[in-house]
């Protein structure tokens, strides 16, 4: 090569700007400018190699900028959530913006008056580069995510791994097609006569970065020798001044500059980045290369000589355009005659009060207007002797001719207001309209008071013994799918068994699913949240880039939840099959796997897997070949004929499911047997009855109005039935017998069309527990799970699809004859208790002086009723978002998100009472916004395996320890445990919790007391003087509980409680500063202390085990005036 690249100082974000990942880069061809797009949806101009910050502007939406192309006249870009593409001047002024019904996935690099853009709706748009008008829309066969304009046509890389060349000079017809990769094209570059691609391959049936850069001769589309890149190519760029030279970059920062005609002529570089590379770009002259990373840093390589002042574009071009300064506000002389419109109006997004609507009109609720007669009655009405009559439909029985008997009062959604407000009268009012969404289906929102989310009355929405799942967390759209998996018994049993195994994955969806189903089992109507599951799902989805992350409250109004949940469903089932696979030691769940000499497949594959034999036949020479394939999720395929729900037409539900299973398709390819090109092949699956799975998982794939018409109710009949009969097929011959399936539940999208709330998902499930306790035909086992709102509904209502607002997405059927055949006896049932006796530290630099706990011995393992004291510390992962109104009131839009950082569990009785047996700091890979050191004692580096001096443990291991303590019936003692358990995301039965915040509480005072004040008043100790320590707090709660037992035995507890509140009012419930009392802090040293109260410790501590080594203040009384003076001594 003629020039070698070397690194120059990078462009780093400003110190006062929070680092944001760089997601797109582009060099300006005519000015000394580098354009960068960030993860927040903004584009910033950096001028010269010093990176002087210039103009900045948004591209639409608040998610990442996907791509930027700078031309001679403008800057084109689009974002992930913008649903469109726009062009801006170099000064940041928007020239045009085209908004698409489907999200933009890619656009081409044309510099003329015409360019091309691809959408997720599988269409290719021809757009005028000067006006943004769409000149032509061409349907395509796949979703294009790469578009490159070449002199031979438009090269398109698709998500199915194919590269298609469209004739851009005529009708955009496909002239060449090649399969470059098996699982999607991730990068595409073309130059001179070469076409280079990178993408995803397959390894052990899973997507994997293809280690080869595929090279093709674009003139004949003939494959040339590929370029190996073992680190996994993530980005590919072409050096414009070298026709056959490309730049291949990995996420780890390894760069290979290689000539595709001579791969031995290469140049390697390694970026000095502490994070991973997120984007790459090459300047028009090839003099510079830029690489953005997740820390917001832009790394630069240059081929220019050191010390030269070469512009980024390679020459002195157009002058830099700077942002215009804002105009100064005019000076207004305020007098009596100054018009108010001289002040101007602020930006607003809500309707102004001056926009009068009928909603502001007063209405007497005691005299409502007569209700309208429903249309379904009018259509069947008959008139005889001027008297109209009609039969009353079933769905309106008991709901007509009902008027309010008193003014309707809105019940408060907050617990602290329940005493001051009355209950809401049940006033049934109903007017049938198929397009009107029933209240039970509408989206529910969590309201936040000044006391936080814990004050929200979830019981207002759920009067059943079935638990709902909360929202306001990332990826909470998966709540209905989790409920569906939970109430599918075989999957629930597998998930519960998996958490008892020794799973070594730090991020395991199967483990998190098991924890969620255990929590839902134990909660019995108490609301739960799946924050750990959603966080793991987001981590794995972002790592594999297979599904999009959805942040609650920030999704776009046009987001298709149906497509998202079906993609997530396939992703989740595939991951569960992979994570639960212990081949060749998988337990056989069915006799057919136990009798076979071959090892059983993964447990999930035994439940939902369908082993099909695909037969492909050449229509020319009739040569056939067969191949077995395993499918987990079936996508429904609908016939092109009109929906009649007739089995003879193949438009009823069983026929559609059967045709989707057998899937008769045809395609064209080359036949090696008859040596003919573009021969038609016909393929069809053969699935015998025994291969039909115990659990049939379906994706409804309703993406159009025509497909939804199949599901609509017709002639008072529903398309979906509670049972399903399927008949297998072998070599084109139908089986003689049928297989009966029972509908277990399904997930639907509620499409409000922006009239009655945003689009969301709900689950309709036939609950097995309700079936077992069903007392009569009128008791319905069907329930609707609308996040944390749970209601019982009739089966007809569940199966009905009355209008377009109810869209099916995921369905689960259970095979009836396999229920009794499934054998779960070989599954592990309990967590290995030895985990409490093991050192689970992963820190590489743990200091022995900071080890404050002693693991349990085998004879100390907890039994039912064992007392333990617990406390946890947390760090802030996301700031609270609030909205301030003009009247000074504040509304919490989204609460702060905390994450477990440290948990300490102490022995509650026995000879080592008060000694911690768990004191783990929690490893987290997420970005921490605030360590909350003042309240948590956690500092920077304490949660990093490379630098932590403490016992550092993965979150899943700590959760498994706590889960084991709950399962073994331990009694948890602590202060404010409800909030701690909520953030930890674990449910502990109330009978296993002793909370000192409730022990020392008077209901008529409406005030709960802090641990610090209780310690000062009851124990005569001053704690939390500098920072919080979880061992100290847990020990204090334990001692408060023991003091409570002492007061109760003496019969003076009520008197002490009154004195406590009386003294609290005097000091405003805050302990005064104690003279001569240093803060209680654990001393460093290898000694391990015993903590406890003298009156509850009938033992003499051994010389090598003294409490005074760590917490001497707990064993010496401190003189302090007060209402009473207890004396405790260490015996």
From TrEMBL:
Keywords: Cytoplasm, Exonuclease, Hydrolase, Metal-binding, mRNA processing, Nuclease, WD repeat
Cofactor binding note: Binds 2 metal cations per subunit in the catalytic exonuclease domain.
Regulation: Positively regulated by the regulatory subunit PAN3.
Gene3D superfamilies for the chain: Cysteine proteinases, Ribonuclease H-like superfamily/Ribonuclease H, YVTN repeat-like/Quinoprotein amine dehydrogenase
Top-level taxonomic group: Eukaryota
Annotated residues for binding of a divalent metal cation: 871, 873, 980, 1033
SUPFAM superfamilies assigned to the protein according to its UniProt record, in alphabetical order: Cysteine proteinases, Quinoprotein alcohol dehydrogenase-like, Ribonuclease H-like
Enzyme class: hydrolase
USP domain sequence ranges: 467-816
Chemical reaction(s) catalysed: Exonucleolytic cleavage of poly(A) to 5'-AMP
General function of this protein: Catalytic subunit of the poly(A)-nuclease (PAN) deadenylation complex, one of two cytoplasmic mRNA deadenylases involved in mRNA turnover. PAN specifically shortens poly(A) tails of RNA and the activity is stimulated by poly(A)-binding protein PAB1. PAN deadenylation is followed by rapid degradation of the shortened mRNA tails by the CCR4-NOT complex. Deadenylated mRNAs are then degraded by two alternative mechanisms, namely exosome-mediated 3'-5' exonucleolytic degradation, or deadenlyation-dependent mRNA decaping and subsequent 5'-3' exonucleolytic degradation by XRN1.
Domain notes: The linker, or PAN3 interaction domain (PID), between the WD40 repeats and the pseudo-UCH domain mediates interaction with PAN3.
Family membership: Belongs to the peptidase C19 family. PAN2 subfamily.
The name this protein goes by in its record: PAN2-PAN3 deadenylation complex catalytic subunit PAN2
UniProt organism field: Somion occarium
Lineage of source species: Eukaryota, Fungi, Dikarya, Basidiomycota, Agaricomycotina
UniProt gene name: PAN2
């Amino acid at each position: 090569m003629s020039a070698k690249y070397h690194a120059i100082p990078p462009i780093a974000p400003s110190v006062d700007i929070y680092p944001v990942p760089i997601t797109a880069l582009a060099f300006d061809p005519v000015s000394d400018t580098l354009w960068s797009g960030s993860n927040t949806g903004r584009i910033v101009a950096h001028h010269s190699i010093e990176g002087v910050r210039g103009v900045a502007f948004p591209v639409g939406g608040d998610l990442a900028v996907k791509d930027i192309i700078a031309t001679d006249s403008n800057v084109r870009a689009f974002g992930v959530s913008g649903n469109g593409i726009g062009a801006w001047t170099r000064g940041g002024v928007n020239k045009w913006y085209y908004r698409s019904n489907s999200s933009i996935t890619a656009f081409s690099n044309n510099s003329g008056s015409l360019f091309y853009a691809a959408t997720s709706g599988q269409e290719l748009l021809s757009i005028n580069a000067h006006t943004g008008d769409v000149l032509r829309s061409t349907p395509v066969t796949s979703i294009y995510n790469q578009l490159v304009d070449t002199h031979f046509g438009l090269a398109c890389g698709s998500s199915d791994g194919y590269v298609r060349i469209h004739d851009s000079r005529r009708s955009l017809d496909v002239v060449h097609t090649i399969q470059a990769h098996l699982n999607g094209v991730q990068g595409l570059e073309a130059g001179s006569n070469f076409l280079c691609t990178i993408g995803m391959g397959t390894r052990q049936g899973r997507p994997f970065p293809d280690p080869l850069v595929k090279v093709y001769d674009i003139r004949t589309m003939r494959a040339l020798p590929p370029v190996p890149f073992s680190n996994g190519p993530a980005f590919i760029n072409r050096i414009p001044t070298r026709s056959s030279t490309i730049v291949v970059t990995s996420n780890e920062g390894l760069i290979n500059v290689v000539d595709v005609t001579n791969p031995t002529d290469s140049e390697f570089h390694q970026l000095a980045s502490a994070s991973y590379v997120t984007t790459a770009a090459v300047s028009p002259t090839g003099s510079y290369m830029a690489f953005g990373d997740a820390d917001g840093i832009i790394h630069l390589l240059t081929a220019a000589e050191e010390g030269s002042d070469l512009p980024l574009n390679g020459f002195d071009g157009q002058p830099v355009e700077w942002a215009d300064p804002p105009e100064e506000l005019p000076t207004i002389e305020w007098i009596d005659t100054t018009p108010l419109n001289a002040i101007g109006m602020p930006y607003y997004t809500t309707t102004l009060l001056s926009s009068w609507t009928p909603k502001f009109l007063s209405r007497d609720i005691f005299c409502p207007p007569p209700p309208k007669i429903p249309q379904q009655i009018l259509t069947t009405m008959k008139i005889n002797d001027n008297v109209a009559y009609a039969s009353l439909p079933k769905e309106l029985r008991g709901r007509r001719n009902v008027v309010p008997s008193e003014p309707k009062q809105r019940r408060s959604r907050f617990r602290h207001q329940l005493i001051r407000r009355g209950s809401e009268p049940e006033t049934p009012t109903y007017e049938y309209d198929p397009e009107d969404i029933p209240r039970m289906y509408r989206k529910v929102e969590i309201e936040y008071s000044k006391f936080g989310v814990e004050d929200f009355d979830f019981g207002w929405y759920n009067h059943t013994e079935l638990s709902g799942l909360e929202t306001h967390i990332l990826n909470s759209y998966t709540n209905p799918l989790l409920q569906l998996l939970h109430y599918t018994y075989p999957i629930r049993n597998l998930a519960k068994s998996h958490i008892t195994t020794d799973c070594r994955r730090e991020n395991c969806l199967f483990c998190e699913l098991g924890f969620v189903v255990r929590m839902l089992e134990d909660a019995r109507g108490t609301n739960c949240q799946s924050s750990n599951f959603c966080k793991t799902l987001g981590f794995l989805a972002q790592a594999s880039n297979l599904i999009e992350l959805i942040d609650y409250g920030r999704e776009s109004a046009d987001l298709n939840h149906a497509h998202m949940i079906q993609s997530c469903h396939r992703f989740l089932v595939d991951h569960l099959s992979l994570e639960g696979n212990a081949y060749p030691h998988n337990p056989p769940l069915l006799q057919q796997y136990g009798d076979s000499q071959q090892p059983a497949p993964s447990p999930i594959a035994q439940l939902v897997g369908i082993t099909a034999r695909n037969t492909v036949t050449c229509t020319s020479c009739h040569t056939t070949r067969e191949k077995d394939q395993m499918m987990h999720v079936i996508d429904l395929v609908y016939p092109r004929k009109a929906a009649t729900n007739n089995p003879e037409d193949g438009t009823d539900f069983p026929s559609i499911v059967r045709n989707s299973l057998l899937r008769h398709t045809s395609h064209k390819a080359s036949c090696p047997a008859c040596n003919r090109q573009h021969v038609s092949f016909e393929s069809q699956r053969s699935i015998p009855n025994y291969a039909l799975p115990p659990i049939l998982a379906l994706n409804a794939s309703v993406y159009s109005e025509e497909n939804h018409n199949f599901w609509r109710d017709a002639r008072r009949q529903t398309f979906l039935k509670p049972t399903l009969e399927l008949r297998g097929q072998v070599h084109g011959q139908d089986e003689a017998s049928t297989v009966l399936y029972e509908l277990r539940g399904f997930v639907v999208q509620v499409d409000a069309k922006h009239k009655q709330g945003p689009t969301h998902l709900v689950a309709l499930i036939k609950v097995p527990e309700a079936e077992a306790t069903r007392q009569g035909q009128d008791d319905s086992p069907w329930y609707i799970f609308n996040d944390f709102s749970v209601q019982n509904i009739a089966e007809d209502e569940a199966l009905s699809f009355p209008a377009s607002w109810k869209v099916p997405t995921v369905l689960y059927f259970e095979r009836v004859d396999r229920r009794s055949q499934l054998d779960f006896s070989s599954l592990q049932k309990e967590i290995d208790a030895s985990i409490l006796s093991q050192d689970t530290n992963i820190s590489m630099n743990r200091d022995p002086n900071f080890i404050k706990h002693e693991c349990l011995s085998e004879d100390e393992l907890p039994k039912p009723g064992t007392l333990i004291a617990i406390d946890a510390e947390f760090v802030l992962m996301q700031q609270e978002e609030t909205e301030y109104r003009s009247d000074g009131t504040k509304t919490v839009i989204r609460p702060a998100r905390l994450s477990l950082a440290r948990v300490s569990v102490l022995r509650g009785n026995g000879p080592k009472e008060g000694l911690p047996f768990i004191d783990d700091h929690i490893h987290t890979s997420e970005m921490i916004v605030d360590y909350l050191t003042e309240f948590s004692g956690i500092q920077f580096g304490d949660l990093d395996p490379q630098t932590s001096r403490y016992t550092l443990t993965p979150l899943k291991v700590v959760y498994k320890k706590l889960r084991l303590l709950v399962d073994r019936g331990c009694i948890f003692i602590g202060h404010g445990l409800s909030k701690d358990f909520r953030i930890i995301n674990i449910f502990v039965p109330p009978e296993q919790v002793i909370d000192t915040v409730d022990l020392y509480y008077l209901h008529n005072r409406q005030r709960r007391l802090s641990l610090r004040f209780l310690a000062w008043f009851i124990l005569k100790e001053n704690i939390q003087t500098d920072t919080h320590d979880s061992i100290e707090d847990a020990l204090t709660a334990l001692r408060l509980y023991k003091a409570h037992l002492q007061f109760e035995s003496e019969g003076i507890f009520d008197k002490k409680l009154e004195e406590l509140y009386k003294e609290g009012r005097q000091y405003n419930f805050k302990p005064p500063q104690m003279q001569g009392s240093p803060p209680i802090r654990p001393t460093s040293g290898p000694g391990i202390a015993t903590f406890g109260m003298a009156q509850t410790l009938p033992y003499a501590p051994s010389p090598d085990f003294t409490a005074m080594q760590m917490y001497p203040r707990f064993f010496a009384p401190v003189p302090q005036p007060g209402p009473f003076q207890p004396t405790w001594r260490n015996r």
